[in-house]
Design brief:
The radius of gyration is 22 Å and the shape is elongated. It is α+β, with helices and mostly antiparallel strands. It is built from three helices and nine strands.
């Protein structure tokens, strides 16, 4: 990979950049490297685990970036080289992500609604052990959520089981967040001015 300064982009190695993908996903991090031929940008981002002593390394294909801004220019101080990457761990994580995307694609092709997919992704943010079984969401191999993906559709060994109650709370919060988001969208949408003749 070349340093980003070698590319056509107007930022240098060590700059903090913010990328908005064509899917409206915002990725911010320190630029580590840039490959001109593939338009691949390597960013050092804050850890998704929340740990302060580790970072996530993200690869961004600039062909799929709709907006790129420089948040902070690189300092003139000498940059320390990045720590070596654990390629075995990266390969394992890549395989897990590919498997997850394939399961998500299978769920979509099985006819899962957008609401079900959004709920699955919301649960996945909190609990790693979430899979699909046809149109059903399986959480921790203990709780099954069936369409239409409401709190009352969460089933387990018993309705008073702690895992069922926990998943119901996640579903309730997700539905509240979705409702707030849709209300906010309606309130911020422009209204048509009335015309009087």
């Amino acid at each position: 990979m070349k340093a980003m300064a070698d590319g056509p982009e107007c930022f240098s190695l060590g700059s903090v950049v913010c990328c908005k993908t064509c899917y409206d996903q915002v990725i911010e991090g320190e630029g580590l490297a840039f490959d001109q031929q593939t338009k691949a940008l390597m960013l050092k981002c804050a850890s998704s685990s929340g740990k302060a002593n580790v970072s996530d390394i993200r690869m961004v294909n600039l062909n799929f970036v709709s907006e790129l801004t420089v948040k902070k220019e690189a300092g003139s101080s000498q940059l320390t080289p990045p720590q070596p990457l654990n390629t075995e761990k990266l390969n394992t994580r890549a395989k897990q992500n590919i498997d997850e995307r394939q399961r998500l694609a299978a769920a979509i092709s099985a006819g899962v609604s957008h609401d079900g997919i959004r709920l699955f992704l919301a649960i996945r943010k909190t609990i790693d052990d979430v899979t699909w079984q046809g149109k059903n969401i399986i959480v921790m191999n203990q709780v099954t959520i069936v369409p239409p993906y409401r709190p009352e559709n969460c089933k387990g060994k018993s309705d008073s089981d702690a895992s069922v109650l926990h998943v119901r709370k996640i579903v309730e919060k997700h539905l509240r967040d979705q409702q707030k988001q849709s209300q906010g969208t309606r309130q911020t949408s422009p209204t048509q001015p009335s015309t009087k003749a």
